[in-house]
Amino acid sequence: MGVRLMVVDDHRLLAEALASALKLRGHRVLAAAAPAAGAADLVIARAPEVCLLGTAAPAEPGVFDPVVKIKRDRPQVAVLVLGPVPSPRGIAAAFAAGASGYVRHDERIEGVERAIMKARAGEAAVAPQLLQGAFGELLNPAAQPDDEAQRLLEMLTPREVEVLVRVADGEDTRLIAAGMGIAPSTARTHVQRVLMKLGVGSRLEAAALAARTGLLDRAGSLRGAGEAP
């Protein structure tokens, strides 16, 4: 017996091709819609048994908000996320939002159909190789050069890094200016730019963020290397 489906994806051609293939296999596809904004409302209004919800960036913050909304308003709808090869964090985020499974964009139609049937039956629908890769990465994480401290450091100029270190050491504007040989007004400008780039509202918040992320240790290593003869 066919499943009442919806296919929602940012790529209209992909959505329509998948919908057509599923129709040929006897499923009732209610709609193949492209817009990401409003996708949840569309699914809630049509209330399919299973929704295939596409995403191009499973690790982006908020990408699974439509899943949360669908499951809140239509808990009986099983949502399958359709996307690229995800990171372990992407898979975890999808399930945390309430998704019933994750299907790769390049999956064969038979695999998509198996995932649909599992989702309708209330089972988790994730390819074993995706789970194996996820567990493997979680158990043996690779070094991440783009950690938060490194990302923040790359946002700051060398002078702003020095200002941040001095702020974390508790120096006020006068001491920062004297220590760096610049005018107090210039020091004040540097401090404001550091706060703006870090997205914080006070010197205390900047110091706390720098300490929490390990940025201060990283900055100290960089300064030490730069002062070496």
What can you tell me about this protein's structure?
This is Response regulator transcription factor. The chain is an alpha/beta fold. It has twelve helices and six strands. Strands 2-1-3-4-5-6 form a six-stranded parallel beta sheet, with helices on both faces. Helix 8 (158-168) packs across helix 11, helix 8 (158-168) packs across helix 12 and helix 9 crosses helix 10 (184-198). The longest helix has 15 residues, at 184-198. It is elongated. 29% of the residues are buried.
Summarize, please.
The protein has twelve helices and six strands.
Cα end-to-end separation:
77 Å
* Overall body shape: elongated
> How many beta-strand segments?
6
Uncertain residue ranges:
224-229
The helical percent reads 55-70%
Query: Strand pairing plus helix content: what structural class?
Result: alpha/beta
What is the H-and-E element order? EHEHEHEHEHEHHHHHHH
Give the integer mean of the pLDDT values.
83
* Percentage beta strand: 5-15%
InterPro entries: CheY-like_superfamily, Sig_transdc_resp-reg_C-effctor, Sig_transdc_resp-reg_receiver, Tscrpt_reg_LuxR_C
GO biological process, one term: phosphorelay signal transduction system
Pfam family, one: GerE
Protein name: Response regulator transcription factor
